[in-house]
Specification:
It is a single chain. With 368 residues, the chain is an alpha+beta fold. The protein has 2 domains: 18-106, Ubiquitin-like (UB roll) (Roll), CATH 3.10.20; 118-366, Glutamine synthetase/guanido kinase, catalytic domain (Creatine Kinase, Chain A, domain 2), CATH 3.30.590. The protein has helices at residues 9-16, 111-120, 170-183, 210-228, 263-276, 278-283, 320-325, 341-353, 361-366; strands at residues 24-31, 37-44, 57-60, 73-83, 92-99, 127-137, 187-192, 198-207, 232-234, 249-254, 307-309, 316-318, 330-332. The strands form 2 sheets. Strands 6, 7, 8, 9, 10, 11, 12 and 13 form an 8-stranded mixed β-sheet that branches. The chain has a 5-stranded mixed β-sheet with strand order 2-1-5-4-3. Helix 2 runs parallel beside helix 8, helix 3 packs across helix 4 and helix 5 crosses helix 8 (341-353). The chain is globular and about 60 Å long. The mean pLDDT is 95. Bound molecules: adenosine-5'-diphosphate (ADP) and manganese (II) ion (3 copies). One manganese (II) ion binds at residues 131, 250, 331.
């Protein structure tokens, strides 16, 4: 497997050992105009104590589908800091929001709107856990490790699979897991998925806006790790037609009231509210999600809202253990693997906890 990254570990190692004389490299990362991630690095004179010590920066938005050529400067405002598992030492990753020259949030900066909703409802302490599914492809555009010109055997042995022929690309997943822990991501687990070369990692439970932040950084880390192996990551919700599972981002949700005795009442109330806004939620739950939410392959139909205990064919699932305890959380199974988690967590708090006059997440998603 060749890679677009020219890399030679032994040679590179000589340079990585060189002292930096107290300087710190900060890799600024942001969401571009295509729901992808971009990054560039900046040298700092010392390690920042907090996010407030980091300078605002900018980039050419006309090269990232984020701005017209005649007004191309887009500003990067640091919002969160992580340890850099690639450069190590004092070097850091800086997650940034994108802002326009006229003081408005950039078209794909949905974080700002979501954060206003979380701020308004901070007393409810809403937590999320997102299960990010994804699929690996080789440089020829074929699913990683699949036989040339053919298909592996049908689904069955691959989910949480162990052993040659049943699990694909474990090295990449293991490397990503360690890199995420090192970075400070609240990664809660990993598992091989139903389709071979499809995997999942979970982040959470995370409070409010930090869910979107950490999911985006975990995606960045995955893309970077996969570079080393010459493998492409796809977040498409239905990468292959036929009898192969699609990829989602199940979103687990709880408020403070749901997590204590009597919580089931609050969970049921939230589900009633969600039932009334099915179309609105679907509109921000990812592109091409109609190809995935067919009512087959452990999904509910995109056309109709449903809910149930332990039902993996429903829009919303209440885990069996939660039903037994009478409190806990619920799982929204509708979001696609390619979501912007700020839109999904944002509309969730809007529907479950209540809207605020300054924000409308459906309009936010459509904002250009
Ligand atoms: P599944 O059985 O659907 O595959 P997973 O174990 O993959 O479930 O993921 C469950 C997710 O739910 C994890 O990300 C976990 O952090 C999250 N979670 C657990 N408890 C809560 C809670 N109280 N509120 C929100 N998310 C939660
Ligand atoms: Mn899962
Ligand atoms: Mn899964
Ligand atoms: Mn799930």
């Amino acid at each position: 497997m060749s890679s677009t990254v020219v890399s030679n570990g032994v040679n590179l190692g000589k340079y990585l050992d060189l002292p930096q004389h107290g300087k710190v490299i900060a890799e600024y990362i942001w969401i571009d105009g295509t729901n992808g991630i971009r990054s560039k690095a900046k040298t700092l004179d010392k390690k920042p104590e907090s996010i407030d010590d980091l300078p605002e920066w900018n980039f050419d938005g006309s090269s990232t589908e984020q701005a017209p050529g005649d007004d191309s400067d887009v500003y990067l405002r640091p919002v969160a800091l992580y340890n850099d598992p690639f450069r190590r030492g004092d070097n850091i990753i800086v997650l940034a929001e994108c802002w326009n020259n006229d003081g408005t949030p950039n078209k794909k900066n949905h974080r700002y709107a979501a954060s206003r909703l979380f701020e308004a409802h901070k007393d409810e302490e809403i937590w999320f856990g997102i299960e990010q599914e994804y699929t690996l492809f080789d440089e020829f555009g074929q699913v990683y490790g699949w036989p040339k010109g053919g298909f592996p055997g049908p689904q069955g042995p691959y989910y949480c699979g162990v052993g040659t022929g049943k699990v694909y690309a474990r090295d990449i997943i293991e490397a990503h897991y360690r890199a995420s822990l090192y970075a400070g991501i609240n990664i809660s687990g990993i598992n091989a998925e139903v389709m071979p070369s499809q995997w999942e990692f979970q982040v959470g439970p995370n409070l409010g806006i930090s869910m979107g932040d950490e999911l985006w950084v975990a995606r960045y880390l995955l893309e970077r790790v996969a570079e080393d192996f010459g493998v492409k990551v796809s977040f498409h919700p239905k990468p292959l037609q036929g009898e192969w599972n699609g990829a989602g981002c199940h979103t687990n949700v709880s408020t403070k009231d749901m997590r204590v005795s009597g919580g089931m009442e609050h969970i049921n109330l939230a589900i009633e509210k969600l039932a009334k806004r099915h179309k609105e939620h679907i509109s921000v739950y990812g592109e091409d999600n109609d190809k995935r939410l067919t009512g087959r392959h452990e999904t509910a139909s995109i056309a109709q809202f449903s809910s149930g205990v332990a039902n993996r064919g429903a829009s919303i699932r209440i885990p069996r253990s939660v039903n037994k305890d009478g409190y806990g959380y619920f799982e929204d199974r509708r979001p696609a693997s390619n979501i912007d988690p700020y839109l999904v967590t944002g509309i969730m708090v809007e529907t479950v906890c209540g809207s605020i006059p300054e924000v409308d997440m459906v309009a936010e998603a459509a904002r250009e």
